[in-house]
C-alpha cells in the first residue's frame, strides 16, 4: 500500500510539474513574441531617428550656406560708401546681430551629443509586420 501511495504521490507531482512546465512555455512564447514585436518597433524607431538626423544635417548645412551668403552681402554693403551715417549704423547693428546669432547657433549645435551613431545601426532593420501592426490596420 505504501508503494502504491508513493506512486500516486509521484504521479500527482509529475502531473503538476507538466502543467507548470506548460504554463511556463506559454509565458515564454508570449514574452518572445512581445520581444520580437518590440525589436521591430525599435528598428523602425532607429530608422526614423537616422532619417531625422539626415534632415537635420541637411538643414544645418543649408543654414550655414545662407548665413555665409548673408554675411557676404553685409560685407559688400558695408564697403559701399553711404551718404547717411544712419544707414551705416543700421548695417553695423545688423552685422553685429547676425554675428551674435551665428555664434549662438554654433553653441546650440555643439551642445547636442550625436555620439549615438553606433546605436543607430540600421543594417539589421526589418520591415516585417507584427501582430500589433496587423491589429491596428
Automatic annotation (TrEMBL):
Transmembrane segments: none annotated. One of its GO terms (molecular function) is GTPase activator activity. GO terms for cellular component: centralspindlin complex; cleavage furrow; midbody; nucleus; spindle midzone. GO terms for biological process: mitotic cytokinesis; mitotic spindle midzone assembly; Rho protein signal transduction. Residues 21-80 form a coiled coil. Keywords: Coiled coil. The keyword Zinc does not apply. This is RGAP1 protein. It comes from Odontophorus gujanensis (marbled wood quail).
Amino acid at each position: 500500500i505504501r508503494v502504491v501511495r508513493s506512486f500516486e504521490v509521484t504521479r500527482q507531482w509529475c502531473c503538476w510539474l507538466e502543467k507548470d512546465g506548460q504554463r511556463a512555455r506559454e509565458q515564454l512564447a508570449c514574452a518572445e513574441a512581445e520581444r520580437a514585436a518590440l525589436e521591430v518597433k525599435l528598428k523602425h524607431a532607429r530608422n526614423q531617428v537616422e532619417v531625422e538626423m539626415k534632415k537635420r544635417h541637411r538643414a544645418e548645412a543649408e543654414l550655414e550656406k545662407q548665413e555665409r551668403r548673408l554675411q557676404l552681402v553685409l560685407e559688400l554693403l558695408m564697403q559701399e560708401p553711404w551718404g547717411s551715417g544712419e544707414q551705416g549704423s543700421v548695417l553695423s547693428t545688423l552685422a553685429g546681430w547676425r554675428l551674435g546669432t551665428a555664434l549662438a547657433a554654433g553653441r546650440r549645435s555643439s551642445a547636442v551629443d550625436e555620439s549615438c551613431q553606433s546605436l543607430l545601426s540600421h543594417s539589421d532593420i526589418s520591415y516585417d509586420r507584427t501582430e500589433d501592426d496587423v491589429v491596428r490596420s
